[in-house]
């Protein structure tokens, strides 16, 4: 019988019914089905209400990075990530930063941009001014959509009009700048844009197409800087000052070459995204915002894409790192307020406002990047990585928890860290002695 992915009524089924459907579909065993089960601490129904067609969960490990001191306050930082070494690296970097006082962080007000696109405008320059003439009334109309946000000091604060040349001719693009306070801002901004759209289209004499938030949150930035003392960077093969120079060389390549910059910024996002995910925030929004910000900055300052961090040597010869990135994260609304695990982890983190969370993200991003550059500029990352990789290989080759250490030890000793070797070792360990 041919199978159809149309799965009629799938969305109306209960979770157990959907699992039963999957059992048939993919010939799943009882053990395989059990891997989808909800964790015991999550109240029934919570996850099923978050998205559609729920069949289960994918538990991602949550680790806690230690040693962080940000603006003279200590934090334990929950990080949800599948990649080995990230949590350990962040903790180690924070320890080095801590010796010189930790991270200093700051943020701008949490202002998001909403875009309204108007096409088919005969006189875009004049249309821009017709819209700007009506700015106070337009802002008032936007704020009428969210009196609660306004009461908390947020709301629509500014309105700008751009004329964007495009392959379909010039377009009038209105930017509504909304202070989202402790929310991510997606709902407030989109609602306001949709509310203003008919009047904006009328004023411009054109047709409105898109009304949506921009993830390039250039007004909602977090920044952090820290000193990494040269004396703490020495290895058995290099002096501290040599390591500082090597890190500056590594950074210089990221600033000069997009192929390296992509990996440099990826390392930053290892830290940032894992905290974003642990706190139930939208990691795709942050990723997209960060990478586009790196390209946008380059479009202004020259180059193709910019590292989100900067490294310099101070007058004492120590390494000083800084970071700036958009941080559209919230503590109210969204999954952060609903997901029981995210709520627990926000409590562990102890942040009281969205800007504070943004500052933590900046510090973690800088720590993560420093750790990667330090490893790459000295012994390389493979040794530490391979040991953790070997653990994963051992487990997937069927090693029982009590066998994993021995399998890893043998692979590392032989210098052959591969799945086939892990399997061989597991078999050897289980072979009865002759
Ligand atoms: C791996 O996830 C991240 C790194 O490649 C980052 C970097 O190269 O800077 C280690």
Please describe what this structure looks like.
- The protein has 434 residues and is an alpha+beta fold.
- Helix content is 48%, strand content 18%.
- It is built from 16 helices and ten strands.
- It has helices at residues 15-26, 30-34, 46-50, 86-98, 124-133, 135-143, 147-151, 186-204, 240-256, 258-278, 283-301, 340-349, 354-377, 382-396, 401-414, 419-430; strands at 62-70, 73-80, 104-107, 111-119, 155-164, 171-179, 207-214, 221-228, 309-313, 319-326.
- The strands form three sheets. A four-stranded antiparallel sheet has the order 3-8-10-9. Strands 5-6-4-7 form a four-stranded antiparallel sheet.
- Strand 9 and strand 10 (319-326) form a beta hairpin.
- The radius of gyration is 26 Å and the shape is globular.
- The mean pLDDT is 95.
- The site of (R)-mevalonate (MEV) has 9 residues, from helix 10 and helix 13.
């Amino acid at each position: 019988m041919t199978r159809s992915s149309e799965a009629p009524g799938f969305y109306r089924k209960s979770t157990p019914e959907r699992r039963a459907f999957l059992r048939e579909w993919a010939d799943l065993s009882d053990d395989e089905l059990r891997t989808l089960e909800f964790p015991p601490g999550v109240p029934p129904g919570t996850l099923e209400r978050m998205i559609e067609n729920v069949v289960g969960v994918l538990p991602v490990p949550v680790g806690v990075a230690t040693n962080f001191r940000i603006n003279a306050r200590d934090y334990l930082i929950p990080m949800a990530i599948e990649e080995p070494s990230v949590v350990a690296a962040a903790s180690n970097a924070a320890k080095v930063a801590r010796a010189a006082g930790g991270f200093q962080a700051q943020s701008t007000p949490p202002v998001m941009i909403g875009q309204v696109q108007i096409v088919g405008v005969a006189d875009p320059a004049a249309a821009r001014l017709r819209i700007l003439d009506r700015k106070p009334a337009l802002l008032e109309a936007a704020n009428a959509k969210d009196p609660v946000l306004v009461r908390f000091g947020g709301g629509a604060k500014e309105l700008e009009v751009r004329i964007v040349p495009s392959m379909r001719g010039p377009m009038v693009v209105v930017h509504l700048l909304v202070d989202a306070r402790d929310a991510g801002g997606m709902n407030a901004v989109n609602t306001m844009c949709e509310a203003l759209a008919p009047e904006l289209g009328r004023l411009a004499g054109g047709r409105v197409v898109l009304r949506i938030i921009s993830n390039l949150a250039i007004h909602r930035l977090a920044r952090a800087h820290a000193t990494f003392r040269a004396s703490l960077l020495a290895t058995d093969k290099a002096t501290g000052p040599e390591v500082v120079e090597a890190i500056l060389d590594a950074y210089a390549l990221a600033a000069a070459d997009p192929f390296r910059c992509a990996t440099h910024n990826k390392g930053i996002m290892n830290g940032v995204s894992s905290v974003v995910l642990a706190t139930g925030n939208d990691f795709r929004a942050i990723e997209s915002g960060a990478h586009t910000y790196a390209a946008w900055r380059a479009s202004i300052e020259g180059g193709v894409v910019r590292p989100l961090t900067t490294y310099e040597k101070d007058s004492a010869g120590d390494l000083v790192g800084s970071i700036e990135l958009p941080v559209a994260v919230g503590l109210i609304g969204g999954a952060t307020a609903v997901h029981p695990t995210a709520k627990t982890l926000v409590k562990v983190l102890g942040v009281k406002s969205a800007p504070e969370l943004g500052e933590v993200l900046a510090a973690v991003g800088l720590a993560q990047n420093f750790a990667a550059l330090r490893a790459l500029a000295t012994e390389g990352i493979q040794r530490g990585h391979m040991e953790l990789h070997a653990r994963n290989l051992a487990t997937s080759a069927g090693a029982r928890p009590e066998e994993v250490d021995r399998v890893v030890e043998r692979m590392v000793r032989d210098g052959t860290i591969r799945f086939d070797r892990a399997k061989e070792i597991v078999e050897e360990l289980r072979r009865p002695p002759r």
